[in-house]
Amino acid sequence: QSVLTQPPSVSAAPGQKVTISCSGSSFDIANNYVSWYQQLPGTAPKLLIYDNNKRPSGIPDRFSGSKSGTSATLGITGLQTGDEADYYCGTWDSSLNAGVFGGGTKLTVL
Amino acid sequence: EVQLVESGGGFIQPGGSLRLSCAASGFTSSIYWMHWVRQAPGKGPVWVSCIDGVGGTTRYADSVKGRFTISRDNAKNTLYLQMNSLRAEDTAVYYCTRDFYRGGLDVWGQGTTVTVSS
Question: b/e map of B21-45 (b: 16 or more CB within 10 Å)?
Fold first, then answer.
C-alpha cells in the first residue's frame, strides 16, 4: 500500500484535459517537493514535473503541476494518444526519512 | 550523452547476495544525490535507497534497512547497491537514478532485473 494515494485510472478524449491527483499527509507532500513521472510499458519512468510545478527541458507545457496542502495535481491538456501511460507522483516522507511514490494512475486516451 | 547503465542483476536463491552497479557517464556524478528505485512486475516504482554526492549520507526504505547497503565510487563514477539476505519480495527491476533537484529524478538507467527464487 503506497503512502501517496492516486486514482487507479483516468480517461479522456483526445484534445481534452485531464487531472491526476496525489494525496498525502503533513509528513510528505505538505512539507516536501513533489515530482511527477510518466511510464510507458517496458521503459523507465520519465520525469515530467519537479519542485511541485517545474518542467524539465523538453517537457511540453501541456503538462503542469500544482500543490496545495497535502495534495498535488498533475494536469495534462491537449491529450494525445501518445500520452497513454502510467503516471506516478513522488516526494520525500520526513517521518519515514525515505522517498515515496504514489500507486500510479493509468491514463487512457479514448 | 548523460547516461546511467546498471548491471549485476540475476537469478539468486533466497538468502543470497548480489551487488548491483550503476555506471554514470556524461555528467559529474559526484555533485548529485543518487537513488535506487525498484519495480516489481506489474507494480509501481518503489524507492529503495539514496546517497549524497560524497557518500557520507545514506537513507534506506524500511523494507531493506539492515540488508542493503548503498555506496559510490566517484573516481569510477559508479553507484552500488549491495543486497544481502535476499527475499522473494525483493524480486524486481532495479533502476539507478539521478536526483536532479529537490527530488526530481531526471536520469534513469535501463534497469537490471533481480529474481529471488528457490
Answer: bbbbeeeebbebbbbbbbbeeeebb
The CA distance from B86 to B117, in Å, is 9
What the block records as the C-alpha cell of B1 is: 550523452
How many whole angstroms separate alpha carbon A94 and alpha carbon A92? Answer: 6
Q: Do B103 and A98 touch (CB under 8 A)?
A: no
Task: Give the whole-angstrom CA distance, residue A60 versus residue A88.
Answer: 18
Contact B4, B22 (CB under 8 A): yes
At A59, give phi and psi (nearest 5°): -90, 125
**Distance between CA A35 and CA A37 in Å, rounded?**
7
**Residue A24 sits at the chain B interface (C-beta within 8 Å):** no
pLDDT tens, position by position, B47-70: 999 999 988 899 999 999 999 999
Amino acid found at A85: A
Is a pLDDT exceeding 90 seen at residue B29?
A: no
Interface test with A, best of B60, B62, B108 (most A CBs within 10 A): B108
pLDDT of B60: 97
**Would the CB atoms of B47 and A35 count as touching at under 8 Å?**
no
Burial of A42 from C-beta contacts in 10 A (0-12 / 13-18 / 19+): exposed
